[in-house]
Write a structure and sequence with these properties.
The chain has one helix and seven strands; from the N terminus they run αβββββββ. The protein is an alpha+beta fold and 153 residues long. This is Hsp20/alpha crystallin family protein.
């Protein structure tokens, strides 16, 4: 290293460079905290259990009513969607001002399954803020094809 400390040393000494690096680390840590908070607001906790005959998914949707929850049956997955809408009205009669605020929230999770799903194999219940989805396992079925002799001619 050159005696003068290189091109950045006129701007930084060892102490100020250490302070700058620490500040950068704190900025990055805070950014990830904000990102995790944002991701948490776009999703919800989900736990999956497997038994011999079925898959059971437990989704924590305690801030939603049953009417705000949908389950979409896809070929090899389930999509759980929850919607919430909140509106507030604030009136200041003294100043003759009325303010309305409305917020819509949509969260969803995709639950991949290792087999094809049919709608009649899916049952769901909702109580105490927990959505419970049971998916009956299907036994794999084999289909055989008859082989015909090739006719030359």
């Amino acid at each position: 290293m050159p005696e003068n400390g290189g091109p950045i040393m006129p701007f930084f000494n060892e102490k100020s460079l250490g302070t700058w690096v620490k500040s950068l680390e704190q900025f990055i840590d805070k950014s990830f905290e904000h990102y995790q908070t944002m991701v948490d607001h776009l999703s919800f906790p989900l736990e999956i259990q497997e038994t011999k005959n079925e898959f059971i998914a437990y989704a924590n949707l305690e801030n939603y009513d049953q009417s705000q929850i949908q389950i979409e049956v896809l070929e090899r997955a389930l999509k759980i969607i929850a919607f919430a809408s909140e509106s507030n009205r604030f009136a200041d009669d003294k100043n003759n001002i009325t303010q309305y605020k409305q917020a819509n929230k949509r969260v969803e999770r995709l639950v991949p399954l290792p087999f094809a799903v049919k709608q009649e194999d899916v049952r769901a219940t909702y109580g105490n803020g927990v959505l419970k989805i049971r998916v009956k396992k299907r036994k794999p079925s084999a289909h055989y094809i008859d082989i015909q002799p090739e006719i030359e001619g």
